[in-house]
Amino acid sequence: MSKIVECVPNFSEGRDKSVIDAISSAIGGTAGVTLLDVDPGQSTNRTVVTFVGDPEAVVEGALNGARAAHRLINMAQHSGQTSRMGALDVCPLHPVRGVTEQECIQCSKRFGERLAQELGVPVFLYGAASSRDYRRTMPQIRAGEYEGLRERLAEARWTPDFGPAEFVPGWGATVTGVRKFLIAYNVNVLGTKEQAHRIALNIREGGRGADAPGRLQCCQAIGWYLEEADLAQVSINLTDYDVTPIHVAFEECRTDAEALRLAVAGSEVVGLLPLAALLQAADHYIQKESLFILEERQKVRLAIDRLGLSSIAPFDPDQRIIEYRLPAPAAGRLAALPVSQFVRQVAARSAAPGGGSVAALCAALGAGLASMVGRMTYGKRQWEHLDTEMRRLIPVFHNIVDGLVAAIDDDTSAFNDYMAALKLARSTPEEATARAAAMQAGLRSAVAVPLGLMRRIQQLWQPLAELAPLGNIATKSDLQVAVRCLETASWGALHNVAINLDDVEDAQFRQQTLQEAEQLASEATSNSRQLLQVLEARRQ
């Protein structure tokens, strides 16, 4: 799997297009970098750039952007409605795909060290890259901002991690590190800057001080006035959207605005955001309004509408959701192949993909057919009296499909890992011991994948038993095929479990695992027979 790191540098220039273009071009022109978004703010006089790449490319891209900023930005002349302390104010990284947090920490340190050496500027580490609790967060480090930087740098406890402990007027200082994905999110209020700030004080974690904390954790906020849109905003940084999701921040702002007799006019996201953040919001409104929406794209549309994300500028999910902008994974993933190519790979003279991947495909097709039967029943006048049951049953099949599809590749990956262990050197006793341990771990993984598939299939028999006597009679044969697919998949997975268990040394593990797998396959046959009898007897 290719390694992808996201980098979101914030530059203290949001008005001069020539400067913004020069910085973004320097980043986007870096080999191995994909520029995802450039989001300038007039009132804040800040531009948030988002790009991705492999770890080395990201470091080079950030350095190229910093070099351009060093030529073009003079912090001594900067002003704007946001906290800032440097021309390249903050340069956060976070892992996206195939890369660990520790690797990102090393990236941030390499970037900080090279930036300080080349430009002669102070650089601080924050987030997971910081080793000191009192300077771990941006508010801690940025306190006093650019104007207070000279005094701060004179204190021993604020010696930079890299570069001189000297005030560089044209640059200020830069902060870099690793953090969870930060969502820069603004809620629009038809009121004054002061009113927006009152709301911000109520909701932000720091509140009005230690004696008066705010309501939302992992939430930083201030109020400002957005001249170009002629409205006030509660400007929010959500540092952990799993703790405080965007819809919670939005609704809390709306509650406080209503108390002040103010209108909330939508909201906006600065830069990009993770798909999961919008799906959280969608699920909230689906539950709140008793809606029935399953498809991802429809959920995204719902979240955009309910949060008013297009109130200032159109919110294009294909451009603003990070997962929709990422480079495609490396070619060769089995589940992504056209059907004809997948079948040809199965038919080729190679051990993988083999029966395990085919069993997973059968299971995915069975669950997909069951979902189809539910959908062909739901919403039709003839079956309207079953809508409540279908709303409950369809998601069971719909939600499990992706996991079953993933098992197609998981099975082949587990086999390949075992084969890689088999090829390890064994010239010395140490090498032989390591090889044996790797082989045993590979075998257990090769057992866990098909056994996990069987457990997933087991979850479907009860909802299938509820669907079989109710589903649209015109889809009876489709459900019969679904049942056969799931039974076949369960037995196919059993055969894979059994053959991989043969060489596992732990006798107790072999016995317990085989017993569970045989029981699941037996129950699959029993459930299949009962369901087929019910379906065969149906006439309407």
At a glance:
The chain contains 18 helices and 11 strands.
Layout of SSEs?
Elements: E1 4-7, E2 10-11, H1 17-28, E3 33-41, E4 46-53, H2 55-72, E5 88-97, H3 101-119, E6 123-127, H4 138-142, H5 149-153, E7 174-178, E8 183-190, H6 193-203, E9 219-226, E10 231-238, H7 246-259, E11 263-270, H8 275-289, H9 296-307, H10 317-320, H11 322-325, H12 339-347, H13 355-377, H14 387-422, H15 429-458, H16 461-467, H17 476-501, H18 507-537
Parallel strand pairs: 5-7, 6-7
Antiparallel strand pairs: 1-4, 1-5, 2-4, 2-5, 3-4, 8-10, 8-11, 9-10
Helix pairs in contact: 1-2, 2-3, 6-7, 8-9, 13-14, 13-17, 14-15, 14-16, 15-17, 15-18, 17-18
Class per helix and strand makeup = alpha+beta
| First and last CA, distance | 49 Å
- Following the backbone from N to C, one meets helices and strands in this order, namely EEHEEHEHEHHEEHEEHEHHHHHHHHHHH
CATH superfamily of the largest domain: Formiminotetrahydrofolate cyclodeaminase monomer, up-and-down helical bundle
Strand content: 5-15%
User: What is the CATH architecture annotation of the largest domain?
Assistant: Up-down Bundle
User: Which outline best applies?
Assistant: globular
* Average pLDDT taken over every residue: 93
Q: C-alpha Rg, in Å?
A: 28 Å
* CATH class placement of the largest domain: Mainly Alpha
Give a count of the beta strands, DSSP E runs of length 2 or more.
11
Question: Unreliable stretches, pLDDT < 50, 5 or more residues?
Answer: none
Q: What about the largest sheet? A: 7 strands, mixed
Q: If you consult CATH, what is the topology of the largest domain?
A: Four Helix Bundle (Hemerythrin (Met), subunit A)
Number of domains: 3
Helix count from the secondary structure assignment: 18
